[in-house]
Amino acid sequence: MAKVIYILGNDISTDIIYPGRYMATVLPTETPQYAFADIPELNKTLKEKSATENFVIVAGDNFGCGSSREQAASCLKGHNLIIIAKNFARIFLQNAINLGLQVITSPNIEVNINDELEIKENEIVNLTTGKSFPIIPLPKTRQAIIDAGGLIPYTRKKMLEERKK
Amino acid sequence: MGMTIVEKILAKATGLNSVKSGDVVEPKVDIAMSHENAALVINQFNEVFKDTGFEPKVWDPDKIAIIFDHRVPAESSKTATNQKKIREFVLKNNITKFHDIRADEGGICHQILAEYGYIKPGSVVVGTDSHTTSHGAFGAFAFGIGATEMASVWTLGRVLNVEVPETIKVIVNGELKDFVSPKDIILYLIGKISAHGANFKVLEFHGDTVKKMPISGRLVLCNMSVEAGATSGIVPSDEETMKYLRETAKVEDEIIFIQPDTDAKYINTISIDADKLESQIACPHTVDNVKPIGEVQGVKINQIVIGSCTNGRLDDIEIAAKILKGNKIAKGVRMLVFPASWRIYKEAMKLGYLEILTGAGAVIMNPGCGCCLGVHQGALGDGEVALSTTNRNFKGRMGNPNAEVYLCSPAIAAFSAIKGEISKPF
Prior knowledge:
The structure holds two protein chains of two kinds. In chain A, helix 3 (71-77) links the parallel strand 2 and strand 3. Chain A has a single domain, classed as Aconitase, domain 4 (Alpha-Beta Barrel). In chain A, 32% of the residues lie in helices and 18% in strands. Chain A is built from six helices and seven strands. By secondary structure, chain A is of the alpha/beta class. Chain B has two domains: 5-272, 2-Layer Sandwich (Aconitase, domain 3), CATH 3.30.499; 281-419, Aconitase, domain 3 (2-Layer Sandwich), CATH 3.30.499.10. Helix content of chain B is 31%, strand content 17%. Chain B is built from 14 helices and 18 strands. Chain B has helices spanning 5-14, 38-49, 77-92, 109-115, 147-156, 182-193, 208-211, 215-223, 239-248, 308-311, 314-324, 342-350, 353-360, 410-419, and strands at 24-25, 31-34, 64-67, 97-99, 124-127, 141-144, 162-163, 166-173, 201-206, 232-234, 268-273, 280-282, 290-292, 303-307, 334-338, 363-364, 385-388, 404-407. In chain B, the strands form five sheets. Chain B has a five-stranded parallel sheet with strand order 4-3-2-5-6, with helices on both faces. In chain B, strands 16-15-14-17-18 form a five-stranded parallel sheet. A four-stranded parallel sheet of chain B has the order 10-9-8-11. In chain B, helix 2 (38-49) crosses helix 5 (147-156). The mean pLDDT of chain B is 97. Classes of the chains: A alpha/beta, B alpha/beta.
């Protein structure tokens, strides 16, 4: 079970997720404190969240548009968030997958704040409203990176295979 | 089945006769570019080799380019320490295409890649910067990636699991009116197809307007393709590409043009009539909130910015200087000019443009990204409005979520500077 803690609109840029003025901070252990720094109430909610809670942020079209800054994915990963959006911008989606941030594409998703969701393999069930919404699965090539535990272990495996040859 | 330019490039980079959209490939990389975020790439790169018994070693030190531009000179001790760490890495790994904070080699990463001839038609270019799409101006397939993806490229020399993107054909025909520029074409296109209208797709630019456009204009089209969500923008290489690479970038290697097949498959075709195009303004807070200037004129401005990887080139500074010659920037307005490279800075100085601009009251800043991304060199106050030739107007972009950024061409920035409000040419 996961709880919806915030609902965002369309075209949420990486400048909103992780403002440029914090870009000199790169360590995944340090980036989470600046997640949504310019939306103070959301930033505060995330800071107060306990590590075990499964929190979901739901957004519209084109979540993560703009800059390629990886901090936008690492800061959300650090809060152990699940991001559900109607669709994602390309570089953000790839960064999320590479780092193991859970991102789910669900074009028809309908939720209200505090709704409880059950995320299944092919659909999201809104336990509060009783409605279900299909999930668009990631391409197999992306799933291979997730299955390997992220792009670093995936690359390490490839590197070691090539060195053996 | 015929191939688009990007399909041809990806086929060659993977050693295949042909590829089609949707295929998954691992293309070899010709140039892997980073800026200050190389500090994060280095961390992730070391992580790849951790506990493997192998020393971290980049696949090819001649194919990695690192250019300091985002925060130059360093705005904080943290940035300075990151830059120091990168310099040490560059030295240790013999990385040859490194551009430090120096007036004899520096500038914005995308301008430096162009000026130094690092990109050729058919190159596969990745960069840890979303505006890497710029290099499609040379008929290269160029796209932005994250730092971990770059660590993977530094290790293996190729990008893993790339899906061959679909391509949208954009045809621009006709003569642009006076003071209407490539910036207005791309803003108009983004407004038309939306900020995610080209997500995961390539924009391939054709038509006689593009054919006649110098590299500087093609760079603008491809640079801002990412603002429509595009993986990349691309312009077919031709004599203009050759002229720039030979004369400006002093490239001596063989240059081979790559054209799309006549029966290439496009998912959509968009036509733009350049004759009819007016100056365009992207209004706060999304780049696709585009309006013809007539609907926005009169908006009062506090800060004008001319610069960035989009519009900080010599022709941009030239048109601003010509408009501002003999004029003054309106009282209460400040104008910041960031030449895109030191080469441009020095040419503009030699041609007298900087004297005209400073005479009008503009402040000439050192080449770099400057205030575009809101780190330093020109933050906005609460409730202030900026009119900028840069590429993004997201909330908070210029350092303050309580301010507004409008985007425009260099000519409109200059006319508006005189009036102190968004203004048509006069």
